[in-house]
Amino acid sequence: MPSTPATTTPVVTAPVTTPAPTPVATPSTGSTAQPSVSVGSGSDQLLLKISQDAYNGNAQYTISVDGKQIGGIQTAKSLHSAGQSDLISVRGDWGQGNHDVAVKFLNDAWGGTDAKDRNLYVDSATYHDQNVPSAHLTLADNGAKHFTFHDYLV
């Protein structure tokens, strides 16, 4: 019997397409949100994120830089427990070096339980889009708490 050449079916492969890479957003230390309140004037800007535990009214406070109060009495609106913050723009013309910021809590209230306690929080601060590490403060009683930021000559 004569041999018949074997026939083979050609293998066809589909072209391989490499998926396009998904771009990853670059983290930003600044905020694109608009400030809730803007106080002071000048070319320098310190952004504060402020929240509160509201009880029987909202927390009130003042902000001072290097011993000088900027703006009047501020009222917190965002709830700390909800992970919200008011964005406060504090403007001034601060020279090179370290600067002391004081946030003074004015109207602490206590109703006998943690659920009935008014507190104020500085959740974070940025200066020239740079995080200020020492600016995470809890104000559980009337009075001021401080942090420092540094202004580099640019």
Automatic annotation (TrEMBL):
Residues 50-134 form the Carbohydrate binding module xylan-binding domain. Residues 1-38 are annotated as: Disordered. Residues 1-17 have a biased composition (Low complexity). This is Carbohydrate binding module xylan-binding domain-containing protein. It comes from Methylobacterium currus.
